[in-house]
Design brief:
The chain has 317 residues and is an alpha/beta fold. Helix content is 42%, strand content 13%. It has ten helices and eight strands. It has an eight-stranded mixed beta sheet with strand order 3-2-1-4-5-6-7-8, with helices on both faces. Helix 4 runs parallel beside helix 5 and helix 4 crosses helix 10.
């Protein structure tokens, strides 16, 4: 893994990838790197205008790239179901790689279309539902992987299973940390259930460290806090690594040989920057009881039942 870079990505010709939030930042960098290595890439984005612009930009950046845009709003479960339905009805479409990349960070209190706290709803529930609905295609594709992008900020907050939507008091950074813990608990439980079924596909996680994207400035821009936005932009310029560097842990998890289920990859240097390396995760993110309870609550909240993985590994005979 030492010194691993985009040049080490294996040939991806014949493989199909879906990358959520691929219109900018880490998602676009991830999609571009996969397309450069020959993958067919679907840019799953909320905004049709930004998604089609990203598709056109990527085609210009990578001549001959096989990329397309498909609308997906992770803050609306009807949109998630629509995306999955469109995927299924398009015919025999293999799915080698699902990159659950899209996310929001430290927003003022907002609700999704289904009434969930926005950070928990987008970062976890939307991707939980999407993965479950696309699972038949992933199961049918040998060597497939599911990569969920978390954050080193998960260390700041464990989930509260009794208050997943932060109804008892909303603190934006706590809610963000909880949503990123939920990402890792989801990967842990998904890996357990896949192992009980037969171990395919590989479910793994990554985090980008401190990468220079528009994720950090979205909240102050939303609130009209221009001075805060400028301070963050300056910090990004001076301290953060590029989106391309931040995407490397995701790309490693997505393509490198021998990636283990439920592994967690991040930057090598102080969880901040550098080549991909095994990342330290909070002990609560590998708690079987917590991951199982979050799974069952996520099924209840989204209505996505995961019939292929319905049996709790702890109760399987």
């Amino acid at each position: 893994m030492s010194g691993w870079s985009e040049h080490d990505i294996p040939d991806q010709h014949g493989r199909t990838a879906i990358v959520t939030g691929a219109n900018s930042g880490l998602g676009h960098a991830t999609a571009r790197a996969l397309a450069r290595r020959g993958a067919r890439v679907v840019l799953a984005c909320r905004s049709a205008e930004r998604g089609t612009a990203a598709r056109d930009r990527l085609r210009a950046e990578v001549p001959g790239a096989d990329v397309e845009f498909a609308p997906l709003d992770l803050a609306d479960l009807e949109s998630v179901r629509g995306f999955a339905d469109a995927w299924r009805t398009a015919g025999d479409r293999r799915l080698d790689l699902l990159v659950n990349n899209a996310g929001v960070m430290a927003l003022p209190h907002r609700l999704t279309a289904d009434g969930f706290e926005m950070q928990f709803g987008v970062n976890h529930l939307g991707h939980f539902a999407l993965t479950g609905l696309l699972l038949p295609s992933l199961l049918a594709t040998p060597g497939s992987r599911i990569v969920t992008v978390s954050s080193f900020m998960h260390h700041t907050a464990n989930i509260d299973i009794h208050d997943l939507n932060s109804t008892r008091g909303y603190r934006r950074w706590t809610a963000y940390g909880r949503s990123k813990t939920a990402n890792l608990l989801f990967v842990h439980e998904l890996a357990r259930r896949l192992a009980a079924r037969g171990g395919h596909p590989v479910a793994t996680a990554a985090h980008p460290g401190y990468a220079r994207t528009n994720l950090q400035t979205a909240a102050p821009r939303m609130e009209g806090r221009r001075s805060a936005e400028r301070v963050i932009e300056l910090g990004n310029l001076l301290l953060a690594q590029s989106a391309e560097a931040g995407a490397l842990p995701t790309l490693y998890a997505a393509t490198a040989p021998g990636v283990r289920p439920d592994s967690f990859t991040g930057p090598a240097v102080l969880a901040w920057r550098g080549a991909p390396a095994p990342a330290r995760r909070a002990r609560w993110t590998t708690d079987d009881r917590a991951s199982g309870r979050l799974w069952e609550e996520s099924v209840r909240l989204t209505g996505v039942t995961w019939p292929e993985l319905a049996t709790d590994p702890d109760t399987a005979s």
